[in-house]
Amino acid sequence: MVENDFVPTGYAVQRERGTVTWKAPSNIALVKYWGKKENQIPANPSLSFTLDACNTTTTLSFIKRENGGTDFSFDLFFEGKAKEDFRPKIELFFSRAKPYLPFLTDYHFKIETSNSFPHSSGIASSASGMAALSLCFMDLEKQLNPDMDTDFMLQKASFLARLGSGSACRSIQGDLIQWGTHSEIPGSSNHYGIHYPFKVHEVFKNYHDTILLVDKGKKQVSSSVGHNLMHGHPYADNRFEQAHENISRLKPVFAEGNLKEFINIVESEALTLHAMMMTSVPYFVLMKPNTLEIINTIWEFRKESNTNLCFTLDAGANVHVLYPEFEKEKVHQFIKNELIVFCEKEQYICDRIGFGAKKINIAYK
Ligand code: PMV
Predict the structure, then answer these.
(1) Protein residue with its CA nearest to atom 9 in ligand 1
(2) Cβ–ligand 1 contact at 165 (below 6 Å)
Protein backbone atom coordinates (compact mmCIF):
# COMPACT_ATOMS: atom_id res chain seq x y z
CA MET A 1 0.00 0.00 0.00
CA VAL A 2 1.27 3.45 -0.89
CA GLU A 3 -0.16 6.85 0.01
CA ASN A 4 -2.30 7.09 -3.14
CA ASP A 5 -4.11 3.87 -2.25
CA PHE A 6 -5.72 5.78 0.61
CA VAL A 7 -7.21 8.49 -1.63
CA PRO A 8 -10.87 7.59 -2.24
CA THR A 9 -12.14 7.73 -5.80
CA GLY A 10 -15.71 8.61 -4.85
CA TYR A 11 -18.49 7.81 -2.43
CA ALA A 12 -21.43 5.51 -3.07
CA VAL A 13 -23.75 6.79 -0.34
CA GLN A 14 -24.70 10.20 1.11
CA ARG A 15 -25.02 10.80 4.86
CA GLU A 16 -26.61 13.95 6.24
CA ARG A 17 -25.74 13.54 9.89
CA GLY A 18 -24.77 10.98 12.48
CA THR A 19 -22.71 10.10 15.52
CA VAL A 20 -20.07 7.49 16.08
CA THR A 21 -17.94 6.55 19.08
CA TRP A 22 -14.64 4.67 19.25
CA LYS A 23 -12.36 3.79 22.15
CA ALA A 24 -8.66 3.44 21.32
CA PRO A 25 -5.82 2.35 23.61
CA SER A 26 -2.44 3.83 24.34
CA ASN A 27 0.69 1.84 23.50
CA ILE A 28 4.16 1.43 24.93
CA ALA A 29 7.14 1.14 22.58
CA LEU A 30 9.69 -1.61 23.15
CA VAL A 31 11.84 -0.35 20.27
CA LYS A 32 11.44 3.42 20.25
CA TYR A 33 10.48 5.76 17.45
CA TRP A 34 12.58 8.88 17.90
CA GLY A 35 13.29 11.07 14.89
CA LYS A 36 11.15 11.67 11.85
CA LYS A 37 11.30 12.88 8.28
CA GLU A 38 8.78 14.99 6.40
CA ASN A 39 5.13 13.92 6.39
CA GLN A 40 5.39 12.00 9.63
CA ILE A 41 7.70 9.34 8.16
CA PRO A 42 9.70 7.68 10.95
CA ALA A 43 13.49 7.81 10.84
CA ASN A 44 13.58 4.25 12.20
CA PRO A 45 11.21 1.32 12.67
CA SER A 46 9.57 0.76 16.05
CA LEU A 47 7.64 -1.95 17.85
CA SER A 48 5.10 -1.67 20.66
CA PHE A 49 2.76 -3.47 23.00
CA THR A 50 -0.78 -2.15 22.68
CA LEU A 51 -2.18 -1.28 26.11
CA ASP A 52 -5.66 -1.76 27.47
CA ALA A 53 -6.59 0.30 30.54
CA CYS A 54 -5.11 3.57 29.29
CA ASN A 55 -7.39 4.66 26.48
CA THR A 56 -9.30 7.53 24.90
CA THR A 57 -12.97 7.49 23.96
CA THR A 58 -14.02 9.86 21.19
CA THR A 59 -17.49 10.65 19.90
CA LEU A 60 -17.69 12.28 16.50
CA SER A 61 -20.97 13.91 15.51
CA PHE A 62 -21.29 15.24 12.00
CA ILE A 63 -23.84 17.29 10.10
CA LYS A 64 -23.67 18.21 6.43
CA ARG A 65 -22.95 21.91 5.81
CA GLU A 66 -25.44 23.58 3.55
CA ASN A 67 -23.10 24.72 0.81
CA GLY A 68 -20.06 22.71 1.78
CA GLY A 69 -16.96 24.78 2.47
CA THR A 70 -13.27 25.13 1.86
CA ASP A 71 -12.27 25.53 5.51
CA PHE A 72 -12.73 23.05 8.37
CA SER A 73 -15.59 23.47 10.80
CA PHE A 74 -15.47 21.70 14.15
CA ASP A 75 -16.11 22.06 17.88
CA LEU A 76 -13.91 20.34 20.38
CA PHE A 77 -14.77 19.13 23.87
CA PHE A 78 -12.44 17.42 26.31
CA GLU A 79 -14.09 15.75 29.27
CA GLY A 80 -17.25 17.77 28.69
CA LYS A 81 -15.59 21.18 28.39
CA ALA A 82 -14.74 23.20 25.28
CA LYS A 83 -11.03 22.76 24.66
CA GLU A 84 -9.55 25.55 22.57
CA ASP A 85 -5.88 24.62 23.16
CA PHE A 86 -6.34 21.31 21.27
CA ARG A 87 -7.56 23.18 18.19
CA PRO A 88 -4.23 23.81 16.41
CA LYS A 89 -3.28 20.12 16.63
CA ILE A 90 -6.67 19.01 15.28
CA GLU A 91 -6.62 21.71 12.59
CA LEU A 92 -3.19 20.43 11.47
CA PHE A 93 -4.49 16.87 11.50
CA PHE A 94 -7.47 17.90 9.34
CA SER A 95 -5.24 19.59 6.79
CA ARG A 96 -2.89 16.59 6.59
CA ALA A 97 -5.82 14.16 6.35
CA LYS A 98 -7.89 16.16 3.83
CA PRO A 99 -6.38 14.58 0.66
CA TYR A 100 -7.37 11.17 2.04
CA LEU A 101 -10.72 12.24 3.55
CA PRO A 102 -12.14 14.73 1.04
CA PHE A 103 -15.42 14.93 3.00
CA LEU A 104 -13.67 16.78 5.84
CA THR A 105 -14.86 20.16 4.50
CA ASP A 106 -18.39 18.90 3.72
CA TYR A 107 -19.49 18.51 7.35
CA HIS A 108 -19.52 20.40 10.60
CA PHE A 109 -18.03 18.10 13.26
CA LYS A 110 -18.37 17.93 17.00
CA ILE A 111 -15.51 16.02 18.62
CA GLU A 112 -16.02 14.93 22.24
CA THR A 113 -13.16 13.12 23.85
CA SER A 114 -12.20 11.76 27.27
CA ASN A 115 -9.36 9.71 28.67
CA SER A 116 -9.48 6.77 31.08
CA PHE A 117 -6.41 8.14 32.83
CA PRO A 118 -6.23 11.40 34.81
CA HIS A 119 -5.52 14.49 32.72
CA SER A 120 -2.35 15.44 34.59
CA SER A 121 -0.69 12.06 34.85
CA GLY A 122 2.22 12.76 32.53
CA ILE A 123 0.72 10.14 30.19
CA ALA A 124 0.43 11.46 26.67
CA SER A 125 -3.02 11.03 25.18
CA SER A 126 -1.95 11.86 21.63
CA ALA A 127 -1.55 8.20 20.56
CA SER A 128 -4.91 6.99 21.87
CA GLY A 129 -6.61 10.29 20.98
CA MET A 130 -5.47 10.40 17.36
CA ALA A 131 -6.22 6.69 16.97
CA ALA A 132 -9.79 7.10 18.28
CA LEU A 133 -10.43 10.16 16.10
CA SER A 134 -9.07 8.43 12.98
CA LEU A 135 -11.29 5.43 13.61
CA CYS A 136 -14.33 7.70 13.91
CA PHE A 137 -13.51 9.24 10.53
CA MET A 138 -12.94 5.82 8.98
CA ASP A 139 -16.25 4.67 10.38
CA LEU A 140 -17.93 7.59 8.65
CA GLU A 141 -16.02 6.82 5.43
CA LYS A 142 -17.16 3.21 5.59
CA GLN A 143 -20.76 4.43 5.76
CA LEU A 144 -20.11 6.44 2.59
CA ASN A 145 -18.48 3.41 0.97
CA PRO A 146 -20.16 0.38 2.55
CA ASP A 147 -18.11 -2.10 0.50
CA MET A 148 -14.88 -1.06 2.20
CA ASP A 149 -13.31 -4.08 3.85
CA THR A 150 -12.45 -4.04 7.52
CA ASP A 151 -8.73 -4.71 7.01
CA PHE A 152 -8.48 -1.71 4.71
CA MET A 153 -10.47 0.41 7.14
CA LEU A 154 -8.11 -0.41 10.01
CA GLN A 155 -5.03 0.09 7.87
CA LYS A 156 -6.23 3.48 6.68
CA ALA A 157 -7.14 4.40 10.28
CA SER A 158 -3.54 3.63 11.24
CA PHE A 159 -2.30 5.67 8.26
CA LEU A 160 -4.45 8.66 9.30
CA ALA A 161 -3.54 8.35 12.98
CA ARG A 162 0.13 8.57 11.99
CA LEU A 163 -0.56 11.92 10.34
CA GLY A 164 -1.85 13.18 13.70
CA SER A 165 0.85 11.71 15.94
CA GLY A 166 3.39 9.15 14.70
CA SER A 167 3.07 6.56 17.44
CA ALA A 168 -0.74 6.74 17.21
CA CYS A 169 -0.54 4.45 14.16
CA ARG A 170 0.41 1.67 16.62
CA SER A 171 -2.79 2.21 18.67
CA ILE A 172 -5.41 0.83 16.28
CA GLN A 173 -4.89 -2.89 16.76
CA GLY A 174 -3.20 -5.20 19.23
CA ASP A 175 -1.27 -6.79 20.65
CA LEU A 176 2.21 -6.37 19.23
CA ILE A 177 2.49 -3.74 16.49
CA GLN A 178 5.37 -2.88 14.20
CA TRP A 179 5.69 0.39 12.30
CA GLY A 180 8.39 1.49 9.86
CA THR A 181 10.06 -0.29 6.98
CA HIS A 182 12.34 -3.12 8.08
CA SER A 183 14.13 -5.42 5.63
CA GLU A 184 13.24 -8.58 7.58
CA ILE A 185 9.58 -7.76 8.21
CA PRO A 186 7.34 -8.46 5.23
CA GLY A 187 4.57 -5.91 4.84
CA SER A 188 6.26 -3.38 7.13
CA SER A 189 5.58 0.21 6.12
CA ASN A 190 6.54 3.75 7.05
CA HIS A 191 2.90 4.71 6.50
CA TYR A 192 1.04 2.52 9.02
CA GLY A 193 1.44 -0.07 11.72
CA ILE A 194 1.03 -3.80 11.10
CA HIS A 195 0.52 -6.82 13.32
CA TYR A 196 3.93 -8.24 14.19
CA PRO A 197 3.96 -11.07 11.64
CA PHE A 198 6.20 -13.67 13.30
CA LYS A 199 5.75 -16.23 16.04
CA VAL A 200 5.16 -14.80 19.51
CA HIS A 201 5.59 -17.05 22.54
CA GLU A 202 2.66 -17.42 24.96
CA VAL A 203 4.55 -15.59 27.71
CA PHE A 204 4.24 -12.33 25.76
CA LYS A 205 0.49 -12.72 25.22
CA ASN A 206 -0.55 -11.37 28.59
CA TYR A 207 2.27 -9.13 29.69
CA HIS A 208 1.62 -6.51 32.35
CA ASP A 209 2.61 -2.85 32.37
CA THR A 210 2.35 -0.95 35.64
CA ILE A 211 2.89 2.74 34.99
CA LEU A 212 4.53 4.54 37.89
CA LEU A 213 3.61 8.23 37.88
CA VAL A 214 6.82 9.90 38.93
CA ASP A 215 6.06 13.29 37.47
CA LYS A 216 2.50 14.15 36.61
CA GLY A 217 3.31 17.57 35.18
CA LYS A 218 3.20 18.66 31.58
CA LYS A 219 5.91 17.21 29.35
CA GLN A 220 9.12 19.25 29.49
CA VAL A 221 9.80 18.63 25.80
CA SER A 222 6.98 18.01 23.35
CA SER A 223 7.54 15.00 21.14
CA SER A 224 7.65 17.12 17.98
CA VAL A 225 10.49 19.19 19.48
CA GLY A 226 12.11 15.91 20.57
CA HIS A 227 11.94 14.31 17.12
CA ASN A 228 13.46 17.44 15.60
CA LEU A 229 16.44 17.16 17.91
CA MET A 230 17.47 14.08 15.92
CA HIS A 231 18.15 16.25 12.84
CA GLY A 232 21.90 16.80 12.82
CA HIS A 233 22.28 14.80 16.05
CA PRO A 234 25.84 13.42 16.27
CA TYR A 235 24.64 9.88 17.06
CA ALA A 236 21.52 9.81 14.88
CA ASP A 237 22.71 7.41 12.18
CA ASN A 238 23.99 4.86 14.66
CA ARG A 239 20.81 5.10 16.67
CA PHE A 240 18.58 4.53 13.64
CA GLU A 241 20.72 1.54 12.69
CA GLN A 242 20.50 0.17 16.23
CA ALA A 243 16.68 0.26 16.11
CA HIS A 244 16.77 -1.94 12.98
CA GLU A 245 19.15 -4.34 14.74
CA ASN A 246 17.06 -4.48 17.90
CA ILE A 247 13.98 -5.40 15.90
CA SER A 248 15.98 -8.23 14.29
CA ARG A 249 17.28 -9.35 17.69
CA LEU A 250 13.73 -9.49 19.04
CA LYS A 251 12.63 -12.06 16.46
CA PRO A 252 14.11 -15.13 18.22
CA VAL A 253 13.33 -13.55 21.60
CA PHE A 254 9.61 -13.40 20.79
CA ALA A 255 9.62 -16.85 19.20
CA GLU A 256 11.37 -18.58 22.10
CA GLY A 257 10.08 -16.50 25.00
CA ASN A 258 13.62 -15.49 25.97
CA LEU A 259 12.85 -13.08 28.81
CA LYS A 260 16.47 -12.32 29.74
CA GLU A 261 17.27 -11.09 26.25
CA PHE A 262 13.92 -9.25 26.08
CA ILE A 263 14.96 -7.30 29.20
CA ASN A 264 18.38 -6.45 27.72
CA ILE A 265 16.86 -5.03 24.56
CA VAL A 266 13.92 -3.20 26.13
CA GLU A 267 15.90 -1.47 28.89
CA SER A 268 18.67 -0.54 26.49
CA GLU A 269 16.09 1.03 24.13
CA ALA A 270 14.64 3.13 26.98
CA LEU A 271 18.04 4.37 28.10
CA THR A 272 19.12 5.06 24.52
CA LEU A 273 16.03 7.24 23.98
CA HIS A 274 17.04 9.30 27.02
CA ALA A 275 20.70 9.27 25.97
CA MET A 276 19.65 10.83 22.66
CA MET A 277 17.96 13.65 24.56
CA MET A 278 20.92 14.16 26.85
CA THR A 279 23.28 14.46 23.88
CA SER A 280 21.21 16.66 21.57
CA VAL A 281 21.52 20.41 21.06
CA PRO A 282 19.93 21.74 23.18
CA TYR A 283 20.13 18.87 25.71
CA PHE A 284 17.49 17.69 28.16
CA VAL A 285 17.35 15.40 31.16
CA LEU A 286 13.81 14.04 31.32
CA MET A 287 14.36 11.59 34.15
CA LYS A 288 13.80 12.74 37.74
CA PRO A 289 15.74 11.51 40.76
CA ASN A 290 12.87 9.10 41.50
CA THR A 291 13.07 7.65 37.99
CA LEU A 292 16.62 6.55 38.79
CA GLU A 293 15.63 5.33 42.25
CA ILE A 294 13.02 3.12 40.63
CA ILE A 295 15.42 1.79 38.00
CA ASN A 296 18.03 0.89 40.64
CA THR A 297 15.43 -0.69 42.91
CA ILE A 298 14.12 -2.79 39.99
CA TRP A 299 17.64 -3.97 39.19
CA GLU A 300 18.33 -4.98 42.81
CA PHE A 301 15.00 -6.78 43.16
CA ARG A 302 15.41 -8.60 39.85
CA LYS A 303 18.81 -9.89 40.92
CA GLU A 304 17.78 -11.10 44.35
CA SER A 305 14.38 -12.53 43.33
CA ASN A 306 15.46 -13.92 39.96
CA THR A 307 12.30 -12.51 38.38
CA ASN A 308 11.90 -11.02 34.91
CA LEU A 309 10.44 -7.57 35.43
CA CYS A 310 12.03 -4.74 33.50
CA PHE A 311 11.40 -1.07 32.86
CA THR A 312 10.89 1.13 29.89
CA LEU A 313 10.45 4.90 29.59
CA ASP A 314 8.72 7.33 27.29
CA ALA A 315 10.00 10.83 26.71
CA GLY A 316 9.38 11.73 30.36
CA ALA A 317 10.04 10.72 33.96
CA ASN A 318 7.31 8.09 34.41
CA VAL A 319 8.40 4.46 34.49
CA HIS A 320 6.60 1.55 32.80
CA VAL A 321 7.27 -1.70 34.67
CA LEU A 322 6.82 -4.69 32.34
CA TYR A 323 6.43 -8.26 33.63
CA PRO A 324 4.89 -11.59 32.69
CA GLU A 325 1.56 -12.81 34.08
CA PHE A 326 3.15 -15.72 35.99
CA GLU A 327 5.14 -13.28 38.15
CA LYS A 328 2.37 -10.78 38.78
CA GLU A 329 1.78 -11.53 42.49
CA LYS A 330 5.46 -11.19 43.35
CA VAL A 331 5.88 -8.05 41.27
CA HIS A 332 2.70 -6.37 42.57
CA GLN A 333 3.90 -6.92 46.10
CA PHE A 334 7.32 -5.50 45.23
CA ILE A 335 5.77 -2.46 43.53
CA LYS A 336 3.56 -1.78 46.56
CA ASN A 337 6.33 -2.32 49.09
CA GLU A 338 9.24 -0.63 47.35
CA LEU A 339 8.33 1.48 44.34
CA ILE A 340 5.17 3.38 45.17
CA VAL A 341 7.07 5.56 47.57
CA PHE A 342 8.83 7.09 44.53
CA CYS A 343 5.57 8.01 42.76
CA GLU A 344 3.95 11.42 42.93
CA LYS A 345 1.14 11.10 45.49
CA GLU A 346 1.87 7.34 45.38
CA GLN A 347 -0.08 7.07 42.13
CA TYR A 348 0.31 4.35 39.55
CA ILE A 349 -1.81 2.69 36.85
CA CYS A 350 -2.10 -1.07 36.38
CA ASP A 351 -2.26 -1.79 32.68
CA ARG A 352 -1.59 -4.80 30.49
CA ILE A 353 -1.37 -5.84 26.88
CA GLY A 354 -4.54 -5.08 24.93
CA PHE A 355 -6.06 -6.14 21.67
CA GLY A 356 -6.87 -2.86 19.99
CA ALA A 357 -9.57 -0.25 19.53
CA LYS A 358 -13.29 -0.92 19.87
CA LYS A 359 -16.38 0.64 18.42
CA ILE A 360 -18.67 1.81 21.21
CA ASN A 361 -21.83 2.83 19.38
CA ILE A 362 -23.06 4.11 16.09
CA ALA A 363 -26.15 6.00 15.01
CA TYR A 364 -26.54 7.24 11.47
CA LYS A 365 -29.53 9.03 10.04
O1 PMV B 1 4.04 9.83 18.49
P2 PMV B 1 4.92 10.90 19.06
O3 PMV B 1 5.32 11.89 18.02
O4 PMV B 1 4.31 11.53 20.28
O5 PMV B 1 6.29 10.20 19.53
C6 PMV B 1 6.36 9.25 20.53
C7 PMV B 1 7.77 8.90 20.85
C8 PMV B 1 8.00 7.96 22.02
O9 PMV B 1 6.83 7.77 22.78
C10 PMV B 1 9.07 8.55 22.93
C11 PMV B 1 8.51 6.62 21.53
C12 PMV B 1 7.52 5.72 20.85
O13 PMV B 1 7.92 5.00 19.93
O14 PMV B 1 6.34 5.70 21.26
Answers:
(1) 314
(2) yes
| Per-residue pLDDT at 365 | 45
Opening angle at CA 167, ends 162 and 169, nearest 5:
45
Residue 315's contacts (CB-CB under 8 Å, 6 or more residues apart) are 34, 219, 221, 223, 226, 273, 277, 286
Average pLDDT for runs of 10 along the chain of length 365: 91 95 98 96 98 97 90 95 92 97 97 88 85 98 97 98 97 98 98 98 98 86 92 98 98 98 98 98 96 98 98 96 98 98 96 97 55
Q: Is 32 in the pocket of ligand 1 (CB under 6 A)?
A: yes
Contact 27, 171 (CB under 8 A): yes
Q: How far apart are CA 276 and CA 283, in angstroms?
A: 9
Rounded Cα distance, 24 and 47, in Å:
18
Which residue's CA is minimally distant from atom 6 of ligand 1? 167
132, 57 Cβ separation under 8 angstroms: yes
Res 1: pLDDT? 78
Helix (H) or strand (E) holding 194: strand 193-195
Atom of ligand 1 nearest to the CA of 165: 1
pTM, entire model:
0.96
Give the residue among 163, 97, 180, 167 at the shortest CA–CA distance from 128: 167
Instruction: Report the DSSP pairing between strands 348-352 and 208-212.
Output: antiparallel
Residues in the chain: 365
CA of 315, closest atom in ligand 1: 10
pLDDT, position 257 = 98
What whole-number distance in Å separates Cα of residue 273 and Cα of residue 32?
7
